[in-house]
Amino acid sequence: MLIPHKKKILFLYFELAGYVVACMEKLAAKYDSEVHVVRYPVNAVAPFQFKFSERIHDYAREKYSNEQLITLVNEINPDFVYVCGWADKGYLAVCKSINKRVPVVMTLDNPWLGTLKQRIASLLGPLYLHQFFTHCWVPGAPNAEYARRLGFKNDRLIQSGMYSADVDLFHQYYNETKEAKENKFPHRFIYVGRYTELKGIRELWQAFSSLNDNERKGWELWCLGKGELHAEFPKNDSIRDVGFVQPDQLKKYLIDAGVFILPTHYEHWGVVVHEYAASGFPMICSTTTSAATTFLKEGENGFFCQPKSVESVRESLLKIINSSDEQLIAMGKKSVELSKLITPDTWADTIMSLVK
User: Fold this and answer.
1) Which among 125, 148, 152, 246 is least surrounded, fewest beta carbons within 10 Å?
2) Residue 96 C-alpha from the chain's centroid
3) pLDDT classification of 52: cutoffs 50, 70, 90
4) Is the pLDDT of residue 1 over 60?
5) Are residues 108 and 190 both part of a single domain?
């Protein structure tokens, strides 16, 4: 009796995040596959701590020259290769050495904006990228347009759902906090992300601080993160600086917070939006948050605001504050429903659908 070949899946990654590890673990468990991950060190601004099962083999990119990396990959002999973009020349050398013997998938999370840089890439991409990659994997519709312009014309060559939150974990948070919130909905906004200008945190602080007591109606703002704008954190008793929190430590903050907000200037995707949808949060997102095109429906589970606009953020805050608790609870349920559109299961299924 022939023993089935255990599929080997190789990831050539930059900065790993907890939600990616959850997807890899789902892939390994659901399909009894062997996962190999070459990755860069974690970002000091988001110092995630990872715990890998025995199914996942972890390699530090900085320990391998380009030639050593090719040797390592030849020893692994993968059935599928996932590559983060095209910036690492060593990763590209690996792709070229594989010579499309197996699916080699380039990931792309940039939405098409029509910038000069993107237009140049769309001219050169079809000539350059296809010597390395067989497919392109994108998070959603805003990114698929760019993939098409890079020469991935066939729908099968462009896969969506590249990013997924650890939906099981955040659904668990929802189920564990649901009853308490239905009894007394917490009047607190929660921001989760880096304290940087790009994330719109400065406009959020200014907008919330501009609310007078009558407008604010007792609502608070909690901020979870760290970054270079920390020195500007407002001195306001209604705004709390929590700092960076590991995903498995979030529950104690989620039970006391009610509405998620991300007023970013520009977000390639934004997995955090998916996470808080799965946690049952109404939300406010800027119109330039790509993930919100999937997980936020205006008026159904939250509101959009304009990027870089203190006044627009302020108006969105007031829309939430002036909603009833019953309306906010219903919005949270809608968020959970939308969060199921992409999951680690669908992520794993996509990879295995391409494995030969």
Assistant:
1) 246
2) 28
3) confident
4) no
5) no
* Domain at 151, CATH number: 3.40.50.2000
How far is the CA of 224 from the CAs of 19, 35, 43, 241, 257, in angstroms? 17, 32, 16, 7, 11
For the stretch 227-239, pLDDT in tens is: 999 999 999 999 9
Distances, alpha carbon 167 to alpha carbons 27, 30, 228, 339, in Å: 14, 15, 30, 8
Do 209 and 288 belong together in one domain?
A: yes
For the chain, the domain total comes to 2
Judge if 141 and 105 occupy the same domain: yes
In a domain, residue 1? The reply is no
List phi, psi (to 5°) of 184. Answer: -150, 100
Q: Is the dihedral of CA 250, 254, 260, 261 positive or negative?
A: negative
pLDDT band, residue 156 (cuts 50/70/90): confident
Using alpha carbons, select from 314, 303, 301, 322 the residue that is nearest to residue 204: 314
301 and 285 Cβ atoms separated by less than 8 Å: no
Same domain, 142 and 190: no
Q: What is the mean pLDDT of residues 60-75?
A: 95
What is the Cα 354 distance to its own chain's centre?
A: 22
pLDDT tens-digit readout, 211-226: 999 999 999 999 999 9
Phi, psi dihedral angles at 303 (to 5 degrees): -145, 150
Instruction: From residue 290, give the alpha-carbon distance in Å to each of 39, 105, 144, 208, 286.
Output: 25, 21, 12, 24, 9
User: What size, in residues, is the chain?
Assistant: 356
- Domain check: are 202 and 251 in the same one? yes
| Angle value at C-alpha 295, between 293 and 301, nearest 5 degrees | 115
Question: How distant, in Å, are the alpha carbons of 29, 72, 285, 339 from that of 281?
Answer: 29, 44, 12, 11
Global pTM reads 0.88
Helices (H), 40-113: 66-76, 89-98
